[in-house]
Amino acid sequence: MAYLKDFFWNNSDELWYEEFENFTGMPPVGEDYSPCRTDSETLNSSAVVVVYVVVFLLSLLGNSLVMLVLLCSQVTRSVTDVYLLNLAIADLLFALTLPVWAVTREKGWIFGTPFCKMVSLLKEVNFYSGILLLAGISMDRYLAIVHATHTLTRKRHLVKFICMGIWVVSLILSLPVCLFRKAFTLNGSSLVVCYEFLGEETTQVRLWLRLPSQILGFILPLLVMLFCYGFTLCTLFKAQMGQKHRAMKVIFAVVLVFLLCWLPYNLVLLADTLMRTGGIEETCERRHDIDRALEATEILGFLHSCLNPLIYVFIGQKFRHGLLKILAARGLISKEFLAHHRASSYSSSSTVPSNL
């Protein structure tokens, strides 16, 4: 991700530039590019930095607590717990990069090429692992509820291998960004950027890299989730399985929040790709609107890293109880309060405990 100054030649062949924030990091190259000069302001830089810092703090605290609760649980972790633990790890790793993006927002890239590659890799891996883990959860619920197949879905050692495979696939999908990204100074400027650099072919190659990453890293997992949860919901409604409805609330909430945070960015990115490849007519107004939308929607995607713990706290009965047990063990709350919470939880649920 880079904050760039794009350089163009005007009709008098005099060099000029226009500063704008572009999360896609795709400055125009080649002689045929038609510049669009606009005077509209981008998102307020200081406000965005504040958002980054707040998301970083909330994500660091929230995902650390999720990992603590799941790892310290005396009850055998369910398959879903293993997936959610990996999801928390991915969000926590990404949150650690947010201070870097905050500094970059104000000062440009000052951290050098190795760190550029590492931070970019963490950002990409977080996105791909997040949606692939959610697709894995959807398949687990589909097999357990629709086909009542417990053999595969209840063996934790198999789930560990699936999660390892997801991390490997996420790493492979993220490698192109890592391999081609470097820190360099734009010609005619003192601005240093962290960006894929392939010479004159940079824009074209970046466009081609988008296609497999969007298909394998977003569209296919999204279709898997829609298929699995569609049939799962139909089965639950037909069987009137009230408790399993409650047990699925957290999962549905996690998936919904992920889509609300990342779907807008991917739709805008698709529109940007179509415009750059000629599928949509490019105008100065559309170019500016898409640049602004890319910036705003990726900030929304960044926000996702701190939201899952909030879902667990407000919806997840099992997580709340596990957190309160840890607090009680360290004397931060009374055991009477813990006992009262457990009694009220059981009275508000059926005899079958929720997985979450």
From TrEMBL:
<protein>
    <recommendedName>
        <fullName>C-X-C chemokine receptor type 1</fullName>
    </recommendedName>
</protein>
<dbReference type="GO" id="GO:0030593">
    <property type="term" value="P:neutrophil chemotaxis"/>
</dbReference>
<dbReference type="GO" id="GO:0016494">
    <property type="term" value="F:C-X-C chemokine receptor activity"/>
</dbReference>
<dbReference type="InterPro" id="IPR000174">
    <property type="entry name" value="Chemokine_CXCR_1/2"/>
</dbReference>
<keyword id="KW-1015">Disulfide bond</keyword>
<dbReference type="GO" id="GO:0016493">
    <property type="term" value="F:C-C chemokine receptor activity"/>
</dbReference>
<keyword id="KW-0472">Membrane</keyword>
<feature type="transmembrane region" description="Helical">
    <location>
        <begin position="83"/>
        <end position="102"/>
    </location>
</feature>
<keyword id="KW-1133">Transmembrane helix</keyword>
<comment type="similarity">
    <text>Belongs to the G-protein coupled receptor 1 family.</text>
</comment>
<feature type="transmembrane region" description="Helical">
    <location>
        <begin position="127"/>
        <end position="146"/>
    </location>
</feature>
<feature type="domain" description="G-protein coupled receptors family 1 profile">
    <location>
        <begin position="62"/>
        <end position="312"/>
    </location>
</feature>
<comment type="function">
    <text>Receptor to interleukin-8, which is a powerful neutrophils chemotactic factor. Binding of IL-8 to the receptor causes activation of neutrophils. This response is mediated via a G-protein that activates a phosphatidylinositol-calcium second messenger system.</text>
</comment>
<dbReference type="GO" id="GO:0009897">
    <property type="term" value="C:external side of plasma membrane"/>
</dbReference>
<keyword id="KW-0807">Transducer</keyword>
<dbReference type="InterPro" id="IPR050119">
    <property type="entry name" value="CCR1-9-like"/>
</dbReference>
<dbReference type="InterPro" id="IPR000276">
    <property type="entry name" value="GPCR_Rhodpsn"/>
</dbReference>
<dbReference type="InterPro" id="IPR001355">
    <property type="entry name" value="Chemokine_CXCR1"/>
</dbReference>
<keyword id="KW-0675">Receptor</keyword>
<keyword id="KW-1003">Cell membrane</keyword>
<keyword id="KW-0145">Chemotaxis</keyword>
<dbReference type="Pfam" id="PF00001">
    <property type="entry name" value="7tm_1"/>
</dbReference>
<keyword id="KW-0325">Glycoprotein</keyword>
<dbReference type="GO" id="GO:0019959">
    <property type="term" value="F:interleukin-8 binding"/>
</dbReference>
<dbReference type="GO" id="GO:0019722">
    <property type="term" value="P:calcium-mediated signaling"/>
</dbReference>
<feature type="transmembrane region" description="Helical">
    <location>
        <begin position="249"/>
        <end position="268"/>
    </location>
</feature>
<feature type="transmembrane region" description="Helical">
    <location>
        <begin position="158"/>
        <end position="177"/>
    </location>
</feature>
<dbReference type="InterPro" id="IPR017452">
    <property type="entry name" value="GPCR_Rhodpsn_7TM"/>
</dbReference>
<feature type="transmembrane region" description="Helical">
    <location>
        <begin position="215"/>
        <end position="237"/>
    </location>
</feature>
<feature type="transmembrane region" description="Helical">
    <location>
        <begin position="49"/>
        <end position="71"/>
    </location>
</feature>
<dbReference type="GO" id="GO:0006955">
    <property type="term" value="P:immune response"/>
</dbReference>
<dbReference type="GO" id="GO:0007204">
    <property type="term" value="P:positive regulation of cytosolic calcium ion concentration"/>
</dbReference>
<comment type="subunit">
    <text>Interacts with IL8. Interacts with GNAI2.</text>
</comment>
<dbReference type="GO" id="GO:0019957">
    <property type="term" value="F:C-C chemokine binding"/>
</dbReference>
<keyword id="KW-0297">G-protein coupled receptor</keyword>
<keyword id="KW-0812">Transmembrane</keyword>
